Amino acid sequence: MDMNQYIEIFTEEAKEHLQNLNSCLLSLEKKPSDVTPLDEIFRSAHTLKGMSATMGFEKMAELTHLMENVLSKLRAGEEKVTSYVMDILFQCLDVLEQMVHTIVFGTGDDLSIADLTISLKQIEEGKQNLPSVQQAREEIAATSACQVQGENETFYLQNCDEFEELVFNDYEKFLIISAIAKGYATFRLRINFDESCLMKVARAFMVFRNIEEVGEIIKSVPPVQEIEDEKFDNSFEIVLISKETEQKLRHVINSIAEVNLGYAKIISISNIQDISMNKAIGDVASEEKSTANNNNGKGLNRKSKAMQTVRVDIERLDNLMNLVGELVISKTRLEQISSASQLAELTETIEHIDLITSDLQAVVMKVRMVPLEQVFNRFPRMIRDLARDLNKKVNLVIKGEDTELDRTVIDEIGDPLVHLLRNSIDHGIESPEIRVNKGKSEEATLRLEAWYEGNNVVIEVEDDGQGIDVAVIKNKAIEKGVITKAEVEQMDELGIINLIFRSGFTTANKITDVSGRGVGLDAVRTKIDSLNGFVGVETLPGRGSKFTIKLPLTLAIIQALLVQVGLETYAIPLSSIDETTHLNRENIKQIQGQEVMLLRGNVLPLIRLDKFLGAPDSNKNSDDYYVVVVRKGNRQAGLIVDSLIGQQDIVIKTLGKLLNGIPGFSGATILGNGHVALILDIGSLI
Amino acid sequence: MEEELQLVAFTIDHEEFAVDILQVQEIEKIIHITRVPRSPNSLEGVINLRGEVIPVINLRKRLKLPLKANEDNNKIVIVKVNDLTVGIIVDGVSEVVRLKKDMIESSPGLVENIEVNYIKGVGKLGERLLILLDLPVILELDKQNDQTAYQEVHDGF
Fold first, then answer.
1. Would an 8 Å CB–CB cutoff place A297 in contact with chain B?
2. What does the pLDDT look like over A382-397, one tens digit per residue?
3. Could you give the ipTM of this predicted complex?
4. How many CA atoms lie within 13 Å of B37's alpha carbon, on the beta-carbon side?
5. In chain B, where are the structural domains located?
6. Which of A664, A668, A670 is closest, CB to CB, to B37?
7. Protein fold of B4-156
8. Taking CA atoms, what residue in B is nearest to A669?
9. Fewer CB within 10 Å, N- or C-terminus of chain B?
10. pLDDT digits over A182-201, tens only?
């Protein structure tokens, strides 16, 4: 069956489950005594296992299966939640995430999981304190006196010469050697069935059950799955680690009717055998899956989700949004016609349509909304790792994760937030010792909070670290050539602090993994700008700093002011307009060749849109101007236009590949009369 | 069997041009074109094609033919090349022609006044000469041939 069509769904769901695992593991780590998250973890791991096995990603299925085994031990209280166990589980998640990643790119789940497999098995068997994988390897190498040459380990196991050779993987080798070290024997058993035996599977099951009472089966040929499916002739082989003697084993097996033990050979280490690591691990994978089937009924009490949801391709939603956009445009057109025709009935109907379209618009927007939770979810883990790497103690407080934003914004907002959080931990938050010296609590608080504010969403990242030192910023900015000394002298404190958003700026003397490349905050600013948003910073030296991001709820339909320049109409996003005002020619002043006006005592630079746009037939002779006061961040300017047409909901259309990168415009929209109007990009204008 | 091409033929300034019919999406009457300030010179502007904003190229400027104001009987040929939908203003669309492949000469020596790069070949159809345009090259607006493009911008200041 062609699975490709399901891959997308699979990866999406897998990501969700991994996210869930991540957050549950984190809460488990915080409170190891409370095992309630384990149920959730178990369920997610179990679902992942099922999904990946169905899709044929065997390694993923194997790894999740092993995780599941460990988890069930933890849940049953048979094993303790130690930091070692947590680390291994987190490592598993990382590998699983990588697998999902490689699956997305069509390269399957072919990652090495040998080490994790062994670690998980150890934990499962209560051997947490056993040597780590690395040590185990060394042990293997030492005991078997084989040559170890880098990764190309060769390993030898003596098999019964007269029979076909068995291939053992790393883990099996490890088991055999530790068994030998402890004085256990490893048997290779051949189980024969009578020719007349009718229910071989049932007999085989009894064999397994009986043998498991006297030892541990580490391998079977053919694999258990095939034995269960009756895919064997009249015999199969198993490798067993046991304390018992051959006689005892013979007795155990021969006690089952129609079955007898063909031979039992003790395996020792001597003969050379090259082992293809991958093949061996593949074998284990299929074997493990089958044991999973044996342990049926385990952890199947999956809770069904109460919410009823439908997964819809974002493209379809975009389509729907476009259609609603069209409707809005047509509605505007109808309004124009009706105001010209003065027909009461028509006006009434149009008012009704107006209501419906705005409702429809609201609903469609809502459908596209995704809670910020999706982005915030990955932060606790990230902060945990980062704080550990940098030896800092950080308590991340997340609030308002249910705040919803348009899907397109959600997809883009993750990276800037990562930058800000990393920035806070790296630069803002001090090491525990310094914090204690300063009389602060050892553990720093990093607050990530989101809320609605009108048609915007505000996201704040606040730390109680050392804050931003204005003097340091000043010197660094001059040193890095971001700004000249003369320029700095004219700036106020806020202006100087905002220099950290300039490209090329960094205060870190060393370039580390975390920061110091001087692209971080600049990249944040650029990204937020491209989302029509705003980012600012406040700081109190010694007390901490706060970054504030303000984003529009959606990018698809915005409110805009339509203005006339010459014969042409342009749209200015309302979000970047402070006010509109009149201006008489006499009140235009010149400062260093730049036209300015005074707005309530403040100097406001003016931009003549007709010149900027090269608009023909502009009304140059008039003495009265309209000025649209626009703002981007803390820059303000007045745009001189011929007239103001009015405020309108506009549907943003992209200008397409050909016109991308033309400065001054962020897109286009279609007016009521069917003409295209360009949307001014205030950021690139002032 | 000889391979045959189906082409859409149109005229600009008494020259006959042609593009592969598979690249042509539709042919529109001339409609309101919104000028895009500070854009390459040969970009006439953008149009609203049933809700989509589509750029429109003025081939006269692109091919350095004599300029002329658009007339009502002009047409916009909407072409789609490499996922890029673009309108081309033409004087008029003549017809769809079938042309055997061996009737197309790759040597563009026959056409003197048009940039060689823009021409994929010249097709002979009886007495008529059809200039086959290389659309992907023509649509690359940012190339050197359009240096006039940004002059407007500087004039603006």
1. no
2. 888 888 888 888 899 9
3. 0.83
4. 27
5. 4-156
6. A664
7. OB fold (Dihydrolipoamide Acetyltransferase, E2P) (2.40.50)
8. B53
9. N
10. 777 777 888 888 877 777 77
